[in-house]
Batch of 2 targets.
Target 1
Amino acid sequence: MAVLAGCGSGGTTGDVISMNSSSCGGTWQDSAPGWHTFELYNANTVGGEVDLTDPATGGVYAEVTGFGPGTTRPVSLDVGSGTYAFRCLFEEQDPMTGPAVTVPGHAAGEAAIAPVTYNDLVGPDKLYQAYVERGLTSLAGQTVALDGDVRRGDLIAARRDWLTAHLTYETLGAAYDAFGDFDDEIDGRADALGVSNPKWTGFYRVEYGLWHGQGARELRPYTEGLASAVAALLKSWPQTEIPLIDIGLRTHEILENALEFQLTGHDDYGSGTTLKTVLANIAGTRELLSLLRPLLASRYPALPSVYSSLGQLQSLVQASQDTAVPALPQRTSQAIDAACGQVLQELAPIASITEPRNT
Amino acid sequence: MPGNSGAATPPAPGRRSFLRGLAGGVAGGVAAGAATGYGLHSPGTDPAAQANAALAEGRLPAVPFHGAVQAGILPDPPLATAVVSLDTTADGLGGLRDLFQTITDRARFLTAGGTPPAVGIGGPALDSGVLGPAVVPDGLVVTFGIGASLFDGRYGLALARPAGLTAMRPFPNDDLDPAQCDGDLILQLSAGHPDTVVHALRDIAMNTRGGMQVNWRIDGFSSPARPAGTVPRNLMGFMDGISNPPATESDDLLWARAPSWAAGGSYLVVRLIRMLVEFWDRVDVTEQEQMFGRRRSSGYLLDNDTSLDATPDFAADPTGEVIPLNSHIRMANPRTPQTASSRILRRAWNYDRGTDQVGDLDMGLIFTCYQQDIRRQFEAVQTRLVDEPLVDYISPFGGGYFLALPGVRDSSDWYGRALLG
């Protein structure tokens, strides 16, 4: 049994609340709202997860995952007036909910967030799978067109069609991991290989050649290889699964990569189109957001701000999209980089909120 | 500092628009409860206990944040520092206000220390964790100022620019890199340890992503006085900043008189000065001492070895037999009635950032000085120093002119309120 004191002494040295195979938190009390640190002790012989929940709604205030037997973990929380109960999910055991504890008064504390389940994410995942399939279908035609340009020796058309195809690929950012080795083959950087290594293939290799005076004969193997890699990827796609956790994770990771590789100009192999790539990345991020929107609307009150920050970034990038990053005036690149940093900061919580959880 | 309850109060997430994406969005209740909840129930609100705990782990106690002047100007500086020039990207005057208020909020929290709020399952942690689960103050002082470029057309402030605040002018011995000069804002973070400084910088950046971008930055350190009780040395081996004016002259030398909203502020000059230490180390110590006008080992004047505070008697040495006429201390401060009003408050740090293309060490001085009037003071001193013998061994390459804003007086005040409010 543990009694958590209220004001003042609650603090960072809370009393220990013990969990075991037959009891999830025993009896504990909290006499007043405020800032508390709960010291949770896993007295069970197995590991698991413990959530502090609102028993009325199932919302989660805080969670301890990977909770090893015999270990103590602190959980800090601004406790508001309301009802609290621990829920234990030990390995190989049925879920268990401890006694509901009411914290008196009318103080606002940290809000509980309804956990997102694996089931919740199946729908968005399927929709994303279909979105990627549509993208790959377009991409297959576009890379065939690019290869045709090069076959005919029309490098002006090839530059145009290269951009169209590359931007299509850049809208599919949440699937790159699922693409496996195809991603390297289709969109790999020269970094480790060097630009003259024949093993370097894909969009960037073709870009490098098209914008560095290489001839059609030299480039043809790469455009041909690109088209066939995309065709093979498209063919394999129906058998590929995108992990459910990816949908939420990628909502910020796509633009993390845009900041690291596109806004720095790192991935400019000659065309100077990295800002257009960022626009494609924004489109890909918007797709994820719209798929997750039904889950986020009630869980992430700052969602409207995410959209306005994303819109701000998009309009700044659009206004400069025909300029290569190094040629941007300093104030312009600062504005774009700041807007990207802002939207990333706001996108980041989505990964935590939409992480699939057991309930 | 009014009221101890602020000392360990976690910040109020969600209060400012730059915080929108953080806890403010996730936990709507936090924002509403922040004004009272944390303050009433935060742990460890006893400042004396906090200070003792801090000292026990080798950290400095908190320096009070609130005051008529900023806390980092007058006292001897702590050992670690970061000087960061930033450009604003905030949208319009409202955005600029938000930015200054957010910086104020973060500085208030970081200098007091406390426990960052938890976010449950609602997002990544709101604190980098660099200082552990609780933020220790470690003597952190935040000095915040503005540059002339803030007064361009973007915020409708053009007419408010103080006449004495301009871009830094080049001097004859300078080799300025525009990429390391000036900026809309200057933020200096100083504390007992480098991790405290880095933590503060990351915290402020995390909370102001959309509002400003780093323009240039440099990290520095101040050396412990060796021997103890003297003055810290620069990387040329000489004590730096021995003859600062006394606090009693601050009203005449330090605090800005114009414009009226700048009362309590002070004009700040930052100069980034590379020292060619390999070349310098190949110079005879006697010649080095002639260039400075002081002894390297003791810091004493060449004409007086009684005390570091002794005043040189230039009148008794009209031809520079003892202290050469072109020595640094004699050119910088001739100690005449006419030059008394040009004295400055020096605050210098050493920097050390790698090597150059010939393998020489890239190190030198982050020279900063505070004054009432940059023309009358820093520029007059620097003009007297043109072509001093020391210029062969140093190369000023960056810096800028700024106005360190008036202090934040209390929990409802914010940086620049007199200008922007």
Note: The first helix of chain B runs from residue 20 to 26.
Target 2
Amino acid sequence: MSFTRQLAAGVAALALIAAACSDDDDGGSADAGSEAEADTGADSSESGETVTIAASVPPTDHGWLGQIAAKAQEAADQWDDVEFRLVEAADADSQASQIQTLINEAPDALVVLPYDGEQLTPVAEQAMEAGIPVINVDRLFASPDAARATILGDNYEIGVNAAEFLAEQLDCEGNVVEIQGIAGISVTTDRTQGFADTIEELCGDGINIVAQQPADFLPDLGLEVMEAILQANDDIDAVYTHDDDMAEGVVAAIENAGREDEMILTGAGGSCAAFDRIEAGGLYAATYLYSPTMAGSAVNMARLIAQGRGFSDLVEPEVPSQIVVPPTEVNQDTVGDLRDLCFE
Amino acid sequence: MSTSPTEQVSGVSGRVDGNGRPPGVGRLALPSRVKLQEYALVGVVLALVVIGAILKPDTFPTADNLRAILTQASVVGVLAIGMTFVIATAGIDLSVGSVVAAAGVAGGLVVDSGAVAFVAAALGFGLGLGLVNGAAIAYGKVVPFVATLAMLAIARGLALLMSDKSPISLLGSDGVRWFGTGEIVGVPVSIVIFAGIAIGGWILLNRARYGRHVVAVGGNREAARIAGVPVRRVVFSVYCLSGLLAGLAAVLLSGRLASASPVAGELLELDAIGAVVIGGTSLAGGRATIVGTFLGVMVFAIMFNLLTQLNLATEWQQIVKGAIILGAVLIQRPERI
């Protein structure tokens, strides 16, 4: 799977970001794109036939998921040829029945961020069989037949990048704590594996992962887990956390213990609160974008697929089947330039 | 009723007779049974401490770690004291975890007006939601499980709505943070508050007429009514108390977290109920013990601390945690039931 991902990643990701950002900050490259595209055919930002797009997402009570909904809505709002509807589901079961209802309404395209990729594969396949193209966001379906196109972040790469950063900062020597997300889901295992593999490869036994505990992406659990870990380890050089929201709790535990000068910490996601801390310097050294803008991109993809068009920046007449968004590192040097990409 | 000994539920009295009577009927039956459970639970706590001291001799049996454990216990502990009163009336409050989040967010909304405003808003909001629970159950005759399950959803929704789904930073309020990180004569504030609530709860349950009423309502509602206990008012009041203490738990948690998060407190209700039941308070009502609840809270807190310190893999943590809970309940069963 990672082979396919990497193949698709390189070219497609950059092209997509250029296309998706055409409405704001990245004006330069978008303009260039439109001009270049004039040679090959229709501009993908021009109005086409009106299409209906439905989106189904898990409950948006987590910072990152809340932004997924917001970014999808924002993307839909910029097109006058899109009728958009977003529904939230409380769990995998209710998301499956929601999607079944949506299939009956026969939208022109369906954007799905599944609660759990495995569990929602059958119902996504039903949608595809009913002739509704499915755009899969973030959590991969188990079968390639379940989606027309997929856009996702690279969780393994987040671990790799964080490991490279910490290896360099620590000169490959020291004790590292890992605070993980929800145990047993692919997001968590990929972020853990990428980190472990890279630390091992770069530093061998130089860096010890002295504690590895899940805190379910929740700030209050991050606080409690880190409090206990701080008690057990009196020499910690770095903390690798899987999520910026959860890291807030971890940071609180470290600061409450007065040990913020002893270690550095990395997050993941790209919350504005994390950006603020990185900018201020000190404990919070870096985070890795796992940008919810991918939901906006998914809506844009859905629109073009439903209209039977491709990206104007790509030569191919159709939308690519998989796009992997790279996890850009946000550190004290780059935080200023990347400011616009953070989410509240 | 007023002439009988008042230690009927605390396990303080030395009576050992009457083991085996149905709960809530023969009050003389209660001391030995509850006391036995408390002794057994002290054994469980000591066993955990000894295991911890052997496996982690440098970092577990330290004063600093004890402070950490008690601080962590304070949030669930405060909830569990309230839950003891609720369960003593044969009720249940499933909403406390969500109420913690909602009360914290309510405080966060007014934190710019100062720490006093934060605390007042958190306590007031918690009490308000508890009041709705109590009114629905005592006067609306809704089953406690259903009423508080509804509140579990409503309070979480309110927390998300009021916070616009993102955490409210409290970094600017030293007053609120004092509840999480401050000290009173060397003891963390949250431990002092937890201790105060536990002692207050013990007095209320064991030394006040109110406590006798609560237990009487849970033991046999009809008998209590005939004996002149204001049943509805008592039932109403325990949910108000539970809501108020959930507001207090929100203050303690927010102070430590330096933010009010709408997703805080998930599944806290299960830890609180678990601690109360492990402690020996009967889910059927009519038998309650604050000392047991305190010990139950400590079992959970020590277990969490120790398992995290040992860095056990999650899957093993779950299995060990379940086994300890089951073991704790099994060894405190009286020989004759």
Note: The first strand of chain B starts at residue 168 and ends at 169.
